[in-house]
Automatic annotation (TrEMBL):
HAMAP family: MetX_acyltransf. It comes from Fluviibacter phosphoraccumulans. InterPro entries: AB_hydrolase_1, AB_hydrolase_fold, HAT_MetX-like. The active site is at S158 (nucleophile), D323, H356. Transmembrane segments: none annotated. This is Homoserine O-succinyltransferase. One of its GO terms (molecular function) is homoserine O-succinyltransferase activity.
Amino acid sequence: MNDVLPGSVGLVRPQTFHSAAPLPLKSGAVLPEFTLVYETYGMLNADASNAVLVCHALSGNHHVAGYTDAADQEGTLGWWDNLVGPGKPLDTNKFFVVGVNNLGGCYGSSGPNTVNQKTGKLYGADFPVVTVEDWVNSQARLADHLGVQSWAAVVGGSLGGMQALQWTLSYPERLQHAVIVASAPKLTAQNIAFNEVARQAILTDPEFYGGHYYEQGVVPARGLKLARMLGHITYLSDDQMAEKFGRSLKDGALKYSYETDFQIESYLRYQGEKFSGYFDANTYLLTTKALDYFDPAESTGGNLDAALASAQADFLLVAFTTDWRFSPERSREIMTALVHNGRRVSYAEIDSVHGHDSFLMDDAQYHAVLRTYFEEVVL
C-alpha cells in the first residue's frame, strides 16, 4: 500500500443507512422505504456535538474526502478533499464529517437505478420527483441513525448550499452553523432555462426510452453528453476560458468541417463523454428539477425576510466574483434577509477566475475564510 497522502483522511469505504419507515415527499408521493449511502471522516465525540454534514452539488456524491483505491490515491480522491481532512480547513481532527449521496442519486442511494421493491425492477422514470426539502428530511433520519441530535454545521456549495439553507428552515434547532458557498435562495429564469435545455437534450435522445433505458441495455449518452457540455460552460468564467483555451486550435490548423477545430470544443466534448460514462441520465433530470423547485420564499409571497424568520443558526456565506451562474448578488440576498432577522452572518466575496467552479478549488483566500470560521465553531 502506498503512503497516505499528506492531510488525507486515508482509505475510506462507503456505508449504508436503510430507513424502513415511509418518507412522504413534497410532491405528495411517498417512498415506502429508502437507502442512503454515506461516508464519515474523523471521530464523533462523546456528546455528538462535533458532527458536520457536507451536502453535495448537482453531480456530486457521498465521496467527499480521502481515496477509495490505495493503489490510485490521487485518482480516487473525494471531490472536496482539498477542504476536508486532518489539518485542513474543515479539520477532521476536530470534526466528525459526514458526506451523503442524496435520494435520487446514482451512487447507491435509492434512485432511478436502484430496485423498486414493489416491482422487482429498477425504478427508472418511476422514481418520484424529489426536492431539496425531501433530501433534508432523509438526511435528518440519517442524523438520527448516527446519534446526531444537532449538527455543529451543515455545509454545501451550489445546490449543496441550498440544502444547508433548507436545514435551517426545516430543522432550525438541529444545527448550529450553516456554511453556504456559491449558492442562491432560488434559481433565476436564466438558470431554469439552462436546466430545461439540458433536460431536453436527454429527453429527446432516441435511447432515453421514456426513462426506462436500463431495460433496453442502453444509455442516452448523447443527451447526457450535451447536457454536461452546456452545464460545464455555465460553471466556467469567460476569463478562465480565454486564459485556458483562447482560440487555440486543436491540431494547429482549421479543418473546414464540423470536427473539433478549437481546443475549447475538444475540452467540452471530452468532459461530456467522460460524464456520460459514469453519471445517470434520470438522476440528472431529477436533480435539475430539485434545483428549479427550490424557493423558500414561495410560501411567503416572495418575501425572503419572512421565509428565513425561523432560522436560528449562525451563517457563513461565501461568493465568488466571476460566478455568473450563482452571482455574489444572490448570496447578498440571503445575507440581507438574515440580517433583517437579527441572525449572526459572516460574508466573504472571493476574487477568483474560476467562475462557479471556484467553490471546488484549492484557493488560499477562500480556504483561509473557511478555516477561520470553523476554528471559531465552539463544540
